[in-house]
């Protein structure tokens, strides 16, 4: 097994007042040649956006972009004609494909919105841009890996991604453990801890720590405290 550890306090950071963002990988003004991604996972930003603020209209192309709200309401609008509210419990994906313009704003004039923005390189270039979002039952994450992003179009419970990647969310009770099994032996997993404390691969993860793992077909994960976390399974090349 090979592993890389990204402690919360080693992430890149950008604070513009209205935006407080922490970057697991090189992004914007933060550049670290040793943190250019994990396999085909390119960006994982942990964003805080102040009330009524947000990202104005800007372009993307040939990237799978996933947004996962952690609290508050995010308002998305794009050149495909979509205008959507994305709330806690929702997962949104946008395949930028041949090119799309979009904006993201805090939908509240009194409370901040916190969300994860994640980019994955696509499997097929220049597809027609597309948008999808779904709401997931918090109870289904209890002591369970709930797949929320899947490459399998037949999996109607998850949003579809143009890549052999899967995202799973889990809420483990203290002392609960389970083994995550890869869907493809050439993939790796990147585990990002939202809350609590986890033990895996001989390491202890605390809030907002992350670990990337490759080389095994399954990985044992144990919660040392009540924990919420994200697993991103991606091809490594």
Automatic annotation (TrEMBL):
InterPro entries under this entry? Pirin, Pirin_N_dom, Quercetinase_C, RmlC-like_jellyroll, RmlC_Cupin_sf
Q: Which superkingdom heads the taxonomic lineage of this protein's source? A: Bacteria
Q: Which Pfam families match?
A: Pirin, Pirin_C_2
Identify the PANTHER family for this entry: QUERCETIN 2,3-DIOXYGENASE
Protein name (database record):
Pirin family protein
Q: Which residues form the Pirin N-terminal domain?
A: 14-120
Q: What family does the database annotate?
A: Belongs to the pirin family.
Instruction: Name all Quercetin 2,3-dioxygenase C-terminal cupin domain ranges.
Output: 148-234
Q: What organism is this sequence from?
A: Pseudopedobacter beijingensis
